[in-house]
Amino acid sequence: MGLYNRFILPKAIHWACSQKPSMLQRGKIIPLAMGSVLEIGIGSGLNLPYYTQKVKHLTAIDPSEELWKKSNINTLSLPFEFEFIKAFAENIPLPKNHFDTVVMTYTMCTIPDLDKAFLEIKRVLKPTGKLLFCEHGKAPEKGIQKYQNIVNPFWKRIGGGCNLNRDIPTLIEGSGFTIKKLETMYLPGWKPASYNYWGIAEVK
């Protein structure tokens, strides 16, 4: 899987995540970011055009430099300071109470240890900070859920660790956050991978 993960998977992820329905979802949540911002799982930088001048500094982390290199955005032209760090969500190499906003889009599905990641997010987020999220996950219909559970082991193997069936609101609230705003819908496409959750959460 080495060559696949290094050369094929980054292209596949960039293509899948850059489709119009997903990009429209990014436009709903990213403009809410402000102040000092941490984006977890920046990937190929698809969120960057949606940040506004309310952002003073954006720190972006991702474990995949290969995927980040797919970005075609000149970060020097952004209207805020920018820094990329190769890092995992479970071990964020940044200080406590540092960020006003943490952003996660289509990221929770792939993080191996979400409990540890959320502990790190709470550590680096200011007490008054906000978590902005937009994710795909567990569908509401039992029939779709059953199919998600059957397909998930294979999907996870070819999709860079992506899980189809994570219950996003339960995971967020079970990790010490309160969801202040939540919206859901199916995006156009294959239903097992297209049920979206997006909103705002705060530390309890």
List descriptors.
204 residues; alpha/beta; Rossmann fold; 6 helices; 7 strands
Task: Describe the fold and architecture.
The structure is a single chain. It contains six helices and seven strands; from the N terminus they run ααββαββαβααββ. With 204 residues, the protein is of the alpha/beta class. The protein has a single domain (2-71, 78-203), classed as Rossmann fold (3-Layer(aba) Sandwich). The chain has a seven-stranded mixed sheet. Strand 4, helix 4 and strand 5 (125-136) form a beta-alpha-beta unit. The longest helix is centred in the C-terminal third of the chain and has 17 residues, at 142-158. It starts with a helix and ends with a strand. The model has no long low-confidence stretch (mean pLDDT 96).
